[in-house]
Specification:
alpha/beta, Alpha-Beta Plaits, five-stranded mixed beta sheet, binds iron/sulfur cluster, 5 helices, Sulfite Reductase Hemoprotein, domain 1, 2 domains
């Protein structure tokens, strides 16, 4: 979906991607509402007048898992679905298969022989749910991770996390906030990532 001033991209999760944890297409409704509520395109057009360039397009990218094929890390605003696993020790036989297979090294045995998840390392890919033959790992916390401020160009930078939201509709107030930051910029030619850097804008 695209108009002159906003570009919205989704990964191919809904085309039966086997890794999908959620359908990013379900977020588009709330993204569209945020754009409408802020009257983004009309207000931005007034500020930019005739100086529309590709770099002035507000880019939004949505993905169905942390593999992030639609590259939300380099867009102004991004969201991707993630889950943290939950391990049930009653079913666990301590085979350690999940520990060996987690590519992030996020699963470990603690001193009392329980499999635990290191949330500093876990990226929420959900792969470990498929590793356990005992079905001792299931879905714990599910969320959409929201990230802002990514860009390429002369000074590239990756988007930073602003929040994990459990409900799809909760993307809307966050997006509205960052659209307003873009619209209120004293220098309309700066990207959202530049504004965040300059003004230390936090959640
Ligand atoms: S981001 Fe995840 S769900 Fe989307 S296409 Fe890539 S692997 Fe599939
Ligand atoms: S793969 Fe399953 S049974 Fe084996 S250690 Fe992990 S949780 Fe336990
Ligand atoms: S969700 Fe992914 S990163 Fe986290 S523990 Fe499971 S396999 Fe490792």
């Amino acid at each position: 979906m695209q108009n002159e001033l906003v570009k919205i991209e989704c990964c191919r999760a809904k085309d039966s991607c086997p890794r999908a944890l959620g359908d990013p297409g379900e977020l588009v409704k709330y993204v569209t509402e945020a754009l409408k509520n802020t009257n983004y395109s009309l207000r931005r057009q007034k500020v930019l007048q005739d100086s529309l360039k590709h770099s002035k397009v507000f880019k939004i990218s949505l993905a169905g898992c942390p593999n992030c094929c639609s590259q939300p890390q380099i867009k102004d605003f991004g969201a991707y679905k993630a889950i943290y696993p939950e391990v049930f020790e009653e079913k666990c036989t301590l085979c350690e298969n999940c520990i060996r297979q987690c590519r992030e090294g996020a699963l470990f045995l603690d001193g009392s022989n329980k499999v635990l998840v290191d949330l500093e390392k876990c990226i929420g890919c959900g792969d470990c749910l498929k590793f356990c033959a005992q079905e001792a790992i299931s879905t714990g916390q599910e969320f959409w991770r929201l990230i802002v401020g990514g860009k390429l160009g002369r000074h590239p930078q990756l988007a930073v996390k602003i929040a994990d939201v459990a409900c799809k509709e909760d993307i809307r107030p966050y997006l509205e906030k960052y659209l307003e930051i873009q619209l209120d910029s004293k220098d309309p030619h700066l990207r959202l990532g530049d504004l965040i850097n300059k003004e230390s804008i936090k959640e």
